[in-house]
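Handout for the seminar on molecular recognition.
Each group receives one record of this type.
Step one: identify the two inputs.
Step two: read the structure output and locate the region that could contact BIS(adenosine)-5'-tetraphosphate.
Step three: write two sentences on what you found, then compare them with the reference statements printed after the record.
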Amino acid sequence: MTQLIFLGPPGAGKGTQSQKLAQSLQIPHISTGDILRQAMKDQTPLGVKAQSYVDSGELVPDELVQDLVQERLGQADAQSGWILDGFPRKVSQAEFLAKLLETIHQAGERVVNLDVPDDVVVARLLARGRKDDSEEVIRRRLEIYRSETAPLINYYRDRQKLLTVNGNQSPEEVTDALHKVIAF
Ligand code: B4P
């Protein structure tokens, strides 16, 4: 069963690559960012609560994303594998996920870290121009990445779950490199 977590700074290519890989492996692509954006668009209670955090580049409170991940991983199509894109984003979320996977007897997750320098991700996000891709918000998201998310690299390395891929190449080259590392 393939269980993959994508890690990397905003704009590293997590969404781009994890979506493609999920399609080729025929397993669900679970993006907390996409789920939150859809909820905001539909103005659901989750979306209303998440809006100000996402717009300013802050992380949405743990309980909100943890609940949605727990619910999604419990669905029928996630019982034979999944790719998590954007979760966990901090150590408390990683600890929550570890406990959850233990409870549902799915403990074989591996973590792909997409490595891309700051100047490259800023250029990519400015070119994309999503609502939360203004220069000020991108700067805040990078700060939060460094303080909250980057510690997960050591967290998963210490647990022998970490695979690293150079994300600073063309999307096709990143895809090839990804297929190679997950084949082992
Ligand atoms: P996300 O949707 O996860 O936003 P992201 O990190 O910017 O996405 P990603 O890294 O996938 O972008 P991609 O590279 O695909 O989160 C948005 C917000 O939601 C967060 O700021 C937070 O508020 C909230 N949130 C989400 N999860 C949360 C959690 N667990 N806890 C709390 N809050 C949470 O795309 C970037 C651009 O680069 C694209 O235009 C793409 O075409 C381009 N690109 C990709 N690969 C490339 C390559 N190899 N070369 C050139 N360009 C490339």
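Reference statements: The two ends are 14 Å apart (CA to CA). The longest helix spans residues 135-149.
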